[in-house]
Design a protein that fits this description.
The chain has 173 residues and is α/β, with parallel strands linked by helices. The chain is built from three helices and nine strands, in the order βαβαβββαββββ. A four-stranded mixed sheet has the order 1-4-3-2, with helices on one face. Strands 5-9-8 form a three-stranded mixed sheet, with helices on one face. It has a two-stranded antiparallel sheet with strand order 6-7.
């Protein structure tokens, strides 16, 4: 059995570098419906942050937003200048990562993504979700899509299934 680092509670946030913070806010907050629950930050000429990120003369702006139970950080560096990335770069390239979102209705989210004009690698295979005689859904379906910058997002609808474990929705009391 693998051991964990002492004191690890959970993933606190996932950082996503972007070349346009306003467009990132449009994607996360306006499109996905994330909640921006802390004030945004910006920095320049900060020796502490330069040491922490391993860059000299860094300058950036960022915002945090919460999508369900995950907090994401979008950040845009103005210094040092970022290289231009191909928004259709292949998933095999180094530095490639994705953020997976669990949703209640992947077909509805897929339709919204297409309406927004964002790239989807393939449509969801809804036949992978079945309903038993008791009305309980089983299985999962998902899509990989891209935000405005080519970052990949996986969108999953997960029901009772041995292959993947979904996140239980927290109920308010």
């Amino acid at each position: 059995m693998a051991t964990t680092l002492a004191g690890v509670i959970s993933i606190q946030h996932i950082g996503v570098p972007v070349p346009d913070l306003a467009l990132a806010r449009r994607f996360y907050v306006d499109f996905l419906g994330a909640l921006e629950d802390v004030p945004p930050l910006e920095w320049a000429n900060n020796p502490f942050i330069d040491a922490a990120v391993g860059l000299k003369g860094s300058a950036a702006r960022q915002f945090f937003c919460r999508l369900g139970n995950v907090q994401s950080e979008a950040f845009e560096y103005s210094a040092p200048k970022q290289a231009v990335l191909d928004p259709r770069r292949g998933v095999r390239e180094y530095g490639y990562s994705h953020l997976a979102q669990q949703v209640e209705d992947v077909a509805a989210v897929h339709a919204r993504i297409l309406a927004e004009g964002l790239q989807v690698h393939a449509p969801p295979v809804m036949e992978a979700i079945t309903t038993d005689v008791d009305g309980v859904k089983h299985g999962y379906a998902g899509i990989y899509c891209r935000d405005y910058f080519g970052n990949v997002f996986e969108i999953l609808e997960i029901h009772e299934c041995a292959d993947i474990r979904g996140i239980e929705r927290q109920r308010s009391v």
